[in-house]
């Protein structure tokens, strides 16, 4: 298994300066956030692909409770004998967007929690959606859409994806809104997606240049306070202008991200190596300071010993990964070598394993 080096268009990225970005792409307004909703429901109308009720008693219990609310009372013995092949117990989840008001429609995701084979063609019955505080914020109901199930174009092929989960576009109605305050005491606060003192100062300078000196001030490397108008209409207009201001983000810290499960390696900028020597099994990587500035390529694979990679100090890590690929190194080999280089101080970048 070879290591996939994801450096798409890294050459142009390393050679060009950082471009300006909008504030709305770099930061979010404090307090303006989604709220997660969840509910337990029942999907009916399945074509024999529902739960096996002998193994999922909660499906039978839920159906019994629902029928009793509709005036159909079953004895305990009758309830336990229900064979509900067309019914599936599901969890219903949704995101309540900021400023959502009662009556607004939102999308929901329906996921089986039993052993149903498929939710395709089913209908979700009226389900309460609750927040973390236990209050009901929405009601969901509708036909479940399961994507990727069925024949291809012209009936030439059949595509079957994950059938135990689906979505209902606009399947829930907001019943209760969540108060969202735009700032406190005459100030609103922006929070950077990633803490960076340089980006924070660039953002403050850009806002003050556009909106007037003294409008923004940095609290720390992540939060920025803005003096905002008192009236709601003026404040919305003010924030609409601010979020479209162009800011030049500071160069981020050099980082190497490794995913050993997929064999992917991603670098956010050019990462060079310092002198070191690493031996891993029959693989050897030597970064020689004496070769710096010498003739020939920065990375060489020893022709006599195919397990030796000779590297000039200051060479790019991307070239080393390519050389290791040519030797048949797998993702775990690469991860072990990178971790050893990082521990020795030869890899001048943050190493993250996901």
From TrEMBL:
Record GO cellular component, one term: outer membrane-bounded periplasmic space
Q: Mainly localized where?
A: other
Q: Which InterPro entries match?
A: Flag_FlgI
Going by the UniProt record, its keywords in alphabetical order are: Bacterial flagellum, Cell projection, Cilium, Flagellum, Signal
Signal peptide range in chain numbering: 1-20
| Keyword Signal in record | yes
One GO BP: bacterial-type flagellum-dependent cell motility
Q: Offer an example of a GO molecular function term for this protein.
A: structural molecule activity
Q: Where in the cell is it found?
A: Bacterial flagellum basal body
Q: How does it assemble?
A: The basal body constitutes a major portion of the flagellar organelle and consists of four rings (L,P,S, and M) mounted on a central rod.
Q: What does this protein do?
A: Assembles around the rod to form the L-ring and probably protects the motor/basal body from shearing forces during rotation.
Similarity remark? Belongs to the FlgI family.
Q: What is this protein called?
A: Flagellar P-ring protein
Q: Per the UniProt entry, what species is this protein from, by scientific name?
A: Azonexus hydrophilus
| Taxonomic lineage from the root | Bacteria, Pseudomonadati, Pseudomonadota, Betaproteobacteria, Rhodocyclales
